[in-house]
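WARN retry 2 of 3 for item q-0093 after timeout on previous attempt; input resubmitted unchanged.
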Amino acid sequence: HGEADLAGLQAEAERIFGESPLFSVVSLEPEIAGARNAIDVLELALWIFAGVAALAGGVAVGIVLSREISQLDAYQPTLSALGLTRGQRAALHAPMAVVVAVGGGCLAVLGAIALSPRFPIDVARRAEPAPGVELDFLVLSSGLLLIAVLVLGGAALAAVRSSHRAAVAPLSTEARLGAGVVGMAARSGLPPTVSNGVRMAFHRGHGRSAVPVRSAIVGGVFGVLGVTAGLVFAASLQSVIDAPQRYGWTWDVTTEDQIVNTFCGDDMRGVEQLPGVEAVAELCYGPGLQVDGLTVPSMAFWSLRGTVEAEVVEGRAPSGPDEIALGAETLDRLGKGIGDTVNVAGPEVTRDLEVVGQVVLPPIGYGQPLADGAVLTGEGNDPFFDVNNYYRYFVARYAPDADRAAVDRAIEDNPDLLRRPAGTVPADIDHLRQVGWVPVALATLLAALSLLAIGHALVSSVRRRRAELALLKTFGFSRRQVRATVAWQATALAAVSLALGIPLGLALGNVICRTVAEGVGIATITAVPVAALVLMVPAALLARGLV
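OK item q-0093 returned
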């Protein structure tokens, strides 16, 4: 009867084996939770990718539709004079919007069905019993409806705004040129190709030559913002992976005591005399400490030379027997914070300890979760000691000038010690590494959509302003100068996109990194990929120039 039988099974096992010093009941929850967390990370990554892709696609489609709809702006007064109401003038754009919504939605549904055999991915694929073509009516119909709502809603807003312009008199060219960047460019004495390019980039124009420049700027900023945030996240994730201390490994060497049933604080196997290390401590690990009724893994540090302690995210490490530090997940499950008191229970004693910090617990034994567990001092852990459910390690940090090979040989020559790997990447961090493709894919997608928005703006601008370009040629512009004018228009749009998008992307990347770090229970680290950002500037200018 499933979990209903668990209590009886455990009671019977304790009746049969309970007298054995090697008997203990160990839950499989850490392994189950590990697999669940891995799949949850993948699911979250796909949700983020889907959400950003939908937002970016909606922005790109909205920009293109708004520009197409704005082509009728010059005819709005005429249509109004012929007797069309504002609603009728807005409805003129409905057929185009319906074709885009239905056509795009059907292509999306067919694409989703075609790609379904490729999903799920990574560890979730190994757990999928029947991978293959998937026809989920609820998901597909919901996606089709969402696409229709986004496209038709964006088109409706643009159509209503366009129909309103019938009664709005456009500002004079002189008034528009006299304001902002356009006016500064006109009065700066710059070459005509530069000043005209800047004017075409930021001057909307009026009548049949009007171009929605704001949408081009929004599209460009959106793309640079996304690429920057993706680069920051990727660099920050790599920085965490390259720094084992961030995920709990504050020491370089781990050795396990080979003599069982030894109490913490007993024979130190001579490790306190180990040459070539600046700090060494005894670390006692137990998978089942009771904290406010919750069973969590625990680590206790006995310093033998120097100081080796857990990585602290917030607050401080325990320094006395009445103090305890907990992982982020444990604090969340208990509803506790730094400064609160928790009740800790052992086989024969119960005590109240003060929570003094949030810590990271490295995967030293049995799939130790990164953010779930407790850390105590050796003296604080001693009353809760259970020799039947207990593992004893010695951890050390190399001295700066140490001969590491000699230290390793000294450990190997000690028959009471067994060298264990240190610096193992925890499952939580490894799960993030498995979805490292997400920021790269999102950055690529946003860059492509940004180029689409800018490219459509340039094409629309050149097409609608053919008369202006012809007038420039009449004034003496050569074909080369006309091309230079359009190139400067693209450069101006790219410059604004970079100037606004990079700071916003850095801020967004920092928020993402902080959110992810808090989610896995480690300290926030935001790495700024300076070289990549510097290279992005000429790359963006070149891409806009090619368009």
